[in-house]
Amino acid sequence: ADLEPYNFETNKQMLEEKWGTQSGNKDHSHKIRDIDVMSHAMYPNVFDEFMEHLSEYGKLSYLDTRTFLEGMTVGQELNVELEPGKQLVIKLIGVSSPDKDGIVNLQFELNGQPRMAHVKDKSAGATTTERPKALKGVEGSVGAPMPGVVLETKVSKGDKVKTGDPLVSLSAMKMETMVSAPVSGVVGRVVVTAGDQIESGDLIVEIEE
């Protein structure tokens, strides 16, 4: 079967706006290469899944294949070269059992300094309900900018809001953060209430433009 004509320039611009330096997300923007455009042309859904993974976890090509697939064992020491002359020495010290929410505590050393990370074990049963995530690329789908606790909701369903209006007040890292409306419109749904514990990217408000 013949493929439909594909406009590489137009689609590269689209990918730049969605995933690249024009996406508005400085922390997770990526340089879109010609090979990325070709990957998207052939496997658009797979490419988007890959870019979502890359945005969430960062570049993982620094790890060797066995570590990437099987993970580290307790006591194992791993040398990771980020660039010539810049190397990380990672040693896994301990792995806890999942708590009631399925969170596992990882103790490790990074260049000799003790560190702790908290990871969701998706294979473990948890008592908490999985919250919906904000839709990427949809401005009216407003997500939490960071993990925290909801202090107060400033809007209700049916309220008219303008760009910049306060939506939800969060407590994160001992600081109060206000989530503002990215677009003007009508509030279609408020997903959270005061006291809710939320993670980064969790949907908090939907605005219908």
Tell me what the structure shows:
The protein has 209 residues and is an alpha+beta fold. It has helices spanning 8-18, 34-42, 44-57, 65-70, and strands at residues 77-83, 86-95, 103-110, 113-120, 141-143, 148-153, 160-161, 166-172, 175-180, 185-190, 197-198, 203-208. It is built from 4 helices and 12 strands. The strands form 3 sheets. A 4-stranded antiparallel sheet has the order 1-2-3-4, with no helix packed on it. The protein has a 4-stranded antiparallel sheet with strand order 5-12-10-7, with no helix packed on it. A 4-stranded antiparallel sheet has the order 9-8-6-11, with no helix packed on it. Strand 3 (103-110) and strand 4 (113-120) form a beta hairpin.
Question: What descriptive keywords fit this protein?
Answer:
four-stranded antiparallel beta sheet, 209 residues, alpha+beta
In short:
The protein is 19% helix and 34% strand.
Share of helix, binned: 10-25%
Main beta-sheet strand count, sense and barrel state:
4 strands, antiparallel
Number of strands: 12
Average pLDDT figure: 86
* Helix-strand topology string: HHHHEEEEEEEEEEEE
* Beta-strand residue percentage: 25-35%
Task: Work out the radius of gyration.
Answer: 21 Å
Spatial strand arrangement across the major sheet: 1-2-3-4
Tally of contiguous helical segments? 4
Uncertain spans: none
Structural class: alpha+beta
The best one-word shape is flat
Distance between the termini: 40 Å
